Amino acid sequence: MNLSLAFEPLISWPLLGLVLAPLLLLALVGLWFRQRGAVFRFAALLALTAALLNPVLLDEEREALKSVVAVVVDRSQSQDIGERTRQTDEALAGLQQRLGRFKQFDVRVVEAGKSEAAEERTETRLFGALESAFRDVPPSRIGGAIMITDGEVHDAPGGTPDFNAPLHALITGNDQEKDRRIRFENAPRFGLVGKPLEMTYRVIGTNNEAGSVDVRVSVNGEQVSVERATIGQAMPLQVTIPGAGRNIVELAIDPEPDELTDTNNRAIALIDGIRENLRVLLVSGEPHAGERTWRNLLKSDASVDLVHFTILRPPEKQDGTPINELSLIAFPTRELFVEKIKDFDLIIFDRYQHRDVLPVLYYDYIAEYVEKGGALLIAAGPEYAGESSIARTPLMSALPAMPTGEVVEKAFYPRLTELGQRHPVTRGLDGSATEPPHWSRWFRTIGVENPGGEAVMKGADNRPLLLLDRKGEGRVGMFLSDQGWLWARGFEGGGPHVQLYRRIAHWLMKEPELEEERLTADGRGMMLEIRRQTMSDDPGPAQIITPSGKAMTVKLERAEPGVFLGSIETSEIGLYQVGNGDLKALAHVGPVNAPEFTDVVSTENRLRAPAEATGGSVRRLAQSSTLGNLAGGVTLPSVVPVRSTGAAAGNDWIGLRTTDDSVLKAVSRVPLFGGFLGLGLLLLALGSMWYREGR
């Protein structure tokens, strides 16, 4: 029963004051001067006032509200280690049983660490889950929170949490755990291809472990060295980035006996390899419209350093001009083709013919340069079919096709061959999907015989137009027409000359993305995506090895000519090995070196400060004294309801606060000065006053 008194005036408060104030003043004056009947007049005034105020006695029926208690269960991957999952399940069942005995508690169980987002699965964010559990609860109704976790919480506040209630932590695992891990201290995101890259790393042991261990260093899955590292100290590391694009540097150490997990015995660094500016030598046999197309394209590429020479005055041209009046520089043939030929990534001969500008021996140097890994492109014109063709020099050993001497002057649309539709250099060229192709015609093709390599484009009468070939460790391309400039000039709408020329140049310079046979894999969220470039019709399935060593198979589906894709949803975070035929690739799923695996030793330290700040406690479910009998269960503290001002933790118990909040269900009203009782009292007072005044 909750009794209270309320007033419900019959008239408004201002009008009530206007009526009663003069009467009260007269009654007080009468009392002051002790006039006869003043007391009766004052009593009558009080009765009138009570009647006008209309006092009401209220009896409220209320229902007490429950305190909300959150039980936050850590289901992150570090909880799968050892006996932690069993301890967690037993502790949760025991707590639910104990809390179920108290009707004043509304228990909410929240599981954290099983989100589908990779970024959330790699961190244990229990306080975020706790905030969500209390989002719709007033602060006065929060009874407390209990966390079942290994203590590796990554969003723990440094001070008091945002709720005024006890926070208790029950720690899984045991206090005798040991683990050894490795991590990168400094790992740049970018590195120059072929240049040493400075990095640092650290091997960390449990309880200030000392000593040294062997560290295996692998780049893109291939072991490159074994380093000796002192445990606990930052160690220097120098690696060489082998190629452009994504590179994976991996450090690995052997697990020690009785170690918790070997998941963190590896550390990964993803480094994007960047090539230094590519050096290209362009030698034009004579000025012509196509020369400027090549020059403008290469000059517009910020990653290319271009050296360009045009032969304007061949040796046989003798017009008597004095040497000192010539504005042209001498062609530094020896410097370019002997001393510094290895410095070039690509040599282009654009409509070049042998005119004794280059000694015959130098062509042999160029062929040797290709054999040892260099790149050569022949942009052929009518000169290639003539008597002075460079095909009649020692360079012929590096060329994919010999000229027939025929120059076909005939309009045609350049078309992709069947191989060209799958080859990454020509696949998907803008305008190639229609018939005829959506680009302009050309009018000249150079005839060749016995073409080698791969013919990816064809010209008039289905003759080879673009040949791509490998010679030794190097590559050679041959463009059998000099009219690509028609596309650049916009003739009949032009064509994709920039796209085509740039792909040819970068394929010759071994750009990884333009390899015919290439396998790549990438992690997006918790999805592993596989891409296979191939010239075959069916590459077969891809084999996958997960971070834990499990083997899986993924079918690759054709996405477009020469491209097959596959994907699989994963549950593990870490480095995956993907294979298809002779090709292998590595991919990391989830954030690199995720905090969830950085430190897996259970600890009480991370939650001690926020727990003690709220009056709560941190304790282990299994103490070292019970390690030999872990199968017998965990040790749970008793649960005790406490008032907001009382202690919330003891040696073997934890307290949860009860709330004083309630909800109103019904109200009973009893007017105190209403009905016949009020009327009788009012008449009695007025009658007494009249009687006294009449004496």
From TrEMBL:
InterPro entries hit by this protein: Class_I_gatase-like
Keyword Transmembrane: yes
Keyword terms, alphabetized: Membrane, Transmembrane, Transmembrane helix
Segments passing through the bilayer: 12-32, 39-58, 672-691
Name the UniProt record assigns to this protein: Glutamine amidotransferase domain-containing protein
Source organism: Mesorhizobium muleiense
Lineage, opening ranks: Bacteria, Pseudomonadati, Pseudomonadota, Alphaproteobacteria, Hyphomicrobiales
